[in-house]
């Protein structure tokens, strides 16, 4: 696995994983100082990588994606899994959008963490219909991906989709994140936690960071301008034992055309009292 960060325009990231190696175009990096933060300068990586990541999938992986899209739309007729109704729109708004966090995730992990990216243990908190975790499991078959969802009907769909696609690297867990974070079988057992469209950042920090090992990453997929939300979450992130590493801006089919991956590094163990009891993080955010 090798992901290179380049500061000059028109330089390429060498994106290597599993069965494919892909040269992906990256725009010039720029830096800025986050509002309310006096000591840390964050990097924004602006990259049109989601389509390239999709094209880099093998024929078998694309077949699995098609099976997933078809199942999602079929099951969506009897339960509320997504507001998107057309297959092409699912690919653009869900599949490619989920893949868009992969290059910044791999880039940050290769630069800041202590293990290789080939066999990561990844947890997707509040996965819903499997986004982004199920898509990442397809793209990275060497990863062990745990999908966490509290609603039984969604878990039934996820297990159906996993079996349909023949995925052996996915575990579906029906549980609330607050309970899972206090379970020693899951607490601080993952290299990376991801979350997309689940809750605001200060709540997500309490859901996700207790599950991440010291030295691992928490990646939250957010909107085009999450800086105020992240500023409010700085205390929660610190209390959970982490620090904000960088903001990565990627192309998206969202209304503003961009999504931001907020990447946090787990610096030390989360205090035992976190996460708090189910429902408390939402009712009384840190």
Question: What percentage of amino acids are in beta strands?
Answer: 25-35%
CATH architecture: 3-Layer(aba) Sandwich
Question: What about the largest sheet?
Answer: 7 strands, mixed
Helix vs. strand class: alpha/beta
In quaternary terms, these chains amount to: single chain
Low-confidence stretches: 1-49
Question: Can you tell me about this structure?
Answer:
Keywords: Cytoplasm, Methyltransferase, rRNA processing, S-adenosyl-L-methionine, Transferase. The structure is a single chain. With 286 residues, the protein is an alpha/beta fold. The protein has helices at residues 50-55, 59-76, 87-99, 102-112, 133-139, 152-165, 177-180, 201-208, 227-239, 280-283, and strands at 12-17, 20-25, 30-33, 41-44, 121-125, 144-149, 170-174, 190-196, 212-222, 242-251, 258-266. The protein has one domain: Rossmann fold (3-Layer(aba) Sandwich), CATH 3.40.50.150. Helices cover 34% and strands 26% of the residues. A seven-stranded mixed β-sheet has the order 7-6-5-8-9-11-10, with helices on both faces. Strands 1-2 form a two-stranded antiparallel ribbon. Strand 8, helix 8 (201-208) and strand 9 (212-222) form a beta-alpha-beta unit.
Question: What's this, in brief?
Answer:
The protein has 286 residues and is an alpha/beta fold. The chain has a single domain (26-283), classed as Vaccinia Virus protein VP39 (Rossmann fold, 3-Layer(aba) Sandwich). It contains 10 helices and 11 strands.
SSE layout and pairing:
Blueprint lengths: L11 E6 L2 E6 L4 E4 L7 E4 L5 H6 L3 H18 L10 H13 L2 H11 L8 E5 L7 H7 L4 E6 L2 H14 L4 E5 L2 H4 L9 E7 L4 H8 L3 E11 L4 H13 L2 E10 L6 E9 L13 H4 L3
Parallel strand pairs: 5-6, 5-8, 6-7, 8-9
Antiparallel strand pairs: 1-2, 3-4, 9-11, 10-11
Helix pairs in contact: 2-3, 2-6, 8-9
């Amino acid at each position: 696995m090798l992901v290179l960060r380049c500061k000059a325009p028109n330089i390429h990231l060498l994106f290597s994983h599993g069965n494919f190696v892909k040269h992906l175009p990256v725009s010039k990096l720029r830096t800025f100082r986050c509002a309310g933060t006096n000591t840390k300068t964050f990097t924004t990586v602006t990259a049109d990588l989601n389509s390239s990541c999709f094209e880099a999938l093998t024929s078998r992986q694309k077949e699995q994606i098609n099976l997933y899209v078809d199942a999602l739309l079929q099951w969506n007729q009897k339960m509320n899994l997504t507001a998107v109704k057309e297959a092409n729109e699912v690919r653009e708004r869900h599949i490619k959008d989920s893949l868009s966090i992969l290059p910044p995730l791999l880039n940050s992990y290769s630069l800041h963490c202590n293990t290789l990216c080939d066999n990561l243990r990844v947890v997707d908190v509040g996965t819903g219909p499997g986004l982004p975790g199920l898509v990442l499991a397809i793209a990275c078959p060497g990863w062990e991906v745990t999908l966490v969802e509290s609603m039984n009907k969604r878990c039934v769909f996820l297990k159906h989709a996993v079996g349909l696609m023949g995925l052996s690297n996915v575990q579906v867990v029906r549980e609330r994140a607050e309970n899972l974070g206090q379970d020693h079988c899951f607490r601080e057992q993952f290299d990376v936690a991801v979350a997309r469209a689940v809750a605001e950042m200060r709540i997500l920090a309490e859901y996700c960071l207790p599950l991440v090992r010291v030295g691992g990453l928490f990646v939250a997929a957010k909107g085009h301008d999450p800086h105020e939300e992240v500023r409010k979450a700085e205390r929660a992130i610190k209390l959970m034992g982490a620090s904000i590493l960088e903001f990565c801006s990627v192309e998206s089919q969202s209304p503003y055309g961009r999504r931001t991956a907020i990447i946090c590094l787990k610096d030390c163990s989360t205090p035992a009292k976190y996460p708090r009891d189910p429902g408390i993080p939402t009712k009384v955010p840190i």
